[in-house]
């Protein structure tokens, strides 16, 4: 069963419904038999809604990647072809406070410029 925080290879249909393309996606949440995903690209971020995920390599992506929050898709779970990996749940952030941790992409997300 797909879970939020996982990278998957998904068969994303084009809007004309005639063809599709396999693309990596980050699963954001599940909704019964459907999922909401953000498309992942190898392109460098070009807007505040494109977030670099430097830890993607350790999560199953082949190259340094960018999560496109400007490109969300609502897909049937049957379009998810293969799990690539999972964002590590926690990683140290070098805090002087013992036990203080952040999610793996949080440093990238926190450093992204705000939209607006």
Features:
mainly beta; two-stranded antiparallel sheet; 8 strands; SH3 type barrels; 116 residues
Task: Provide the CATH architecture.
Answer: Roll
Looking at the structure, the CATH topology is SH3 type barrels
**What structural category characterises the helix and strand content?**
mainly beta
Query: How many individual domains?
Result: 1
Distance between the termini: 36 Å
Strand order of the largest sheet: 4-5-3-2-1-6
Q: What amount of the residues lies in strands? A: over 45%
Largest sheet: 6 strands, antiparallel
| CATH C-level category | Mainly Beta
Count of alpha/pi helices: 1
Low-confidence stretches: 90-104, 106-116
Mean pLDDT: 77
Please give the share of residues in helix: under 10%
Number of strands: 8
Q: Nearest-angstrom radius of gyration?
A: 15 Å
Characterize the structure shown.
With 116 residues, this protein is mainly beta. It has one domain: Roll (SH3 type barrels). Helices cover 5% and strands 47% of the residues. The protein is built from one helix and eight strands. The protein has one helix spanning 106-111; strands at 6-13, 20-31, 34-41, 50-53, 65-76, 80-86, 91-92, 101-102. The strands form two sheets. A six-stranded antiparallel sheet has the order 4-5-3-2-1-6, with no helix packed on it. The protein has a two-stranded antiparallel ribbon with strand order 7-8. The longest helix has 6 residues, at 106-111. The protein is globular and about 30 Å long. It starts with 5 loop residues before the first strand and ends in a 5-residue tail after the last helix. The model is unreliable at 90-104 and 106-116 (pLDDT under 50).
């Amino acid at each position: 069963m797909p879970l939020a925080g996982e990278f998957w290879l998904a068969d994303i249909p084009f809007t004309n419904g005639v063809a599709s393309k396999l693309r990596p996606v980050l699963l954001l949440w599940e909704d019964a038999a459907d999922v909401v995903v953000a498309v992942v690209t190898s392109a460098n971020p070009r807007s505040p809604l494109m977030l670099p995920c430097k830890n993607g390599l350790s999560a199953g992506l082949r190259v340094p990647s960018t999560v496109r929050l400007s490109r969300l898709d609502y897909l049937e779970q049957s379009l998810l072809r293969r799990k690539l990996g999972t964002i590590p749940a926690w990683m140290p952030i070098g805090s002087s406070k013992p036990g203080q941790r952040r999610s793996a992409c949080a440093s990238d997300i926190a450093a992204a410029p705000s939209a607006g």
